[in-house]
Amino acid sequence: QAGCALPRAVEQFHYLLWPDHGVPRNPSQLLGLVEVVNKRVLEAPAGPVLVHCSAGIGRTGTFIALDFLLKMGKAEGKVDVFHCVQQLREQRVSMVQTKEQYSFLYEVLLEGLLCGSTGVPVESIASLVRSLRDEETSGCNSILEKEFKALQRFSELFQLLPCREAEKPRNQPKNRKPGILPGNT
Q1: Distances (CA, A) of 24 to 108, 140, 142
Q2: Which of 63, 110, 127, 160 is 20 to 30 Å from 89 at the Cα level?
Q3: What is the band of 1 on the pLDDT scale with cuts at 50, 70, 90?
Q4: 179 Ramachandran zone, left/alpha/beta (phi>0; psi -120 to 50)
Q5: In the prediction, which pLDDT does 161 show?
Q6: What domains sit in the chain, N to C, each tagged with a CATH number?
């Protein structure tokens, strides 16, 4: 038609595992989505990325903040979640809508910045195993060692909290089950 803009191709990524007002059960899945979207943008930079959930504030704000903060963390070696969300809210009210979403940002950033991308496409797994075997026979396990060290660092953050208060003699009668004690607060 005369006067109409050229047709545009739109590629949609629809993430179904994120409840409204909630957070995904697994940070890795959301990190994977961010990675796929950014990879696609690099492959075919045809225009802006549009992010939208039902209301356009909670999940949308969390996704945008996560993408921005991952890039910030990699580039600057630090993140500022508070100011990022504050700036988003200056553009649109209530971005990152719930306390749970705000807290989840930290959890996803922890995994994303500490462990990085560890996903392997199915078609690449055989060549990865071969290269790991080659590294093992040569005495150099750089890929495997790097991932395992990241896993160790990540796991250390989730060690059992000390239960000193619950273990004190005056508090022992209050403990209903000896194997389930509250951590120190």
Answers
A1: 10, 37, 32
A2: 110
A3: low
A4: alpha
A5: 58
A6: 9-117+135-175 (3.90.190.10)
